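Ticket #4471: structure output looks truncated?

Reporter: J.K.
Steps to reproduce: submitted the chain below (375 residues) through the standard prediction queue, then opened the result file.
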Amino acid sequence: MTKFKPATITAQASGATDPLTGGVVPPIQPSTTFLRGRDYELLNGEYSYARYHNDAGKIAEKTLAILEQAADSALFPSGMAATAAVFRTLKNGGSAVIQSGIYHGTTHWIRDFCARRDITLHELDTSDQTVLESVGKTDLIWIETPSNPWLKITDIRYAARIAKRAGAILVVDSTAATPILSQPLTLGADLVMHSATKAINGHSDVLAGVLACREKNPLWDHILAERAGAGAVIGPFEAWLLIRGIRTLPLRVANMCQNAEKIADFLKDHPAVEEVFYPGLPGFPGYQIAAEQMTGGFGFLMSVRIKGDAANALNVAGRLNLFHRATSLGGVESLVEHRHTIEPDTGVPENLLRLSIGIEDAGDLIDDLGQALGQ
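Returned output as attached by the reporter:
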């Protein structure tokens, strides 16, 4: 399947069908345990227990590995579980650099983890190359591009060079880009992480995470062993739903990106809007880098600052009819979130709304935003 384009790879679920019935949809195998023969040999020579083997999970992992141009990939029950698996490879007393202003759940967990492990943690604005240049010897560099909710763009190639010089592994949270728009491993990253709950699944009905590696090495073996030993595995039903979502991923992402560009263009000059954060706007910081390392679009996520205070922003959110007021991002339905309500201690402005653009008609979404803003 590696010779085909993403649309073909995903639509065909990387070639998976049901060999038993000939069904064109891969089956679900819900069994948690597997038979041994009278000689006590495994009947299929491999499968013994669901914590180690999951057919649907393997299909999803194979598909995502092909999309990422990765040596291997591994599913987890959430994006945070995947994140934790990476940081648990750090030794006590080590050091790490993480990008500032990223998903607050990631930042809070990493801070607590590093404090417990006596790991020195530096939080830096990695979208600023002069700041990145200041990184000294460390064990791990974690970036998120585009970042949530600021949509900052970090140059992955440059970060990879800095990581190599620092003796660190580079990990990229590429959730807001998806494997359709960006392949960080081809730009020098060692690992890429996605909250597959978001656009990879795309239907707001599965919790999942994924890691993909540029090469299989002792670090990757450690991650896989820890995943199995600690039980950070995804169930067969969730994996099957993830396959279903992946099969339409390129179509959804293309539509969402087109919608987002139209909406960003509408919002940037609106008299009720103070500022729009979207890497697809030519004047946005990081636009040029995004254009180089994201192919086929600039993503479906954006943030806007409404003129006025928190009350103004909340009033706009409250008047929206098509945008659901809910957390998360990357689903087929458009969402709006007042981020200061969710993360009041991170410096997010009180007048900032984060928008996740879905696959609805762009004109309908623009009309909804227009009436909420008061055209």
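Triage note (M.O.): checked the attachment and the full token line is present. The chain has a mean pLDDT of 97.
Status: closed, working as intended.
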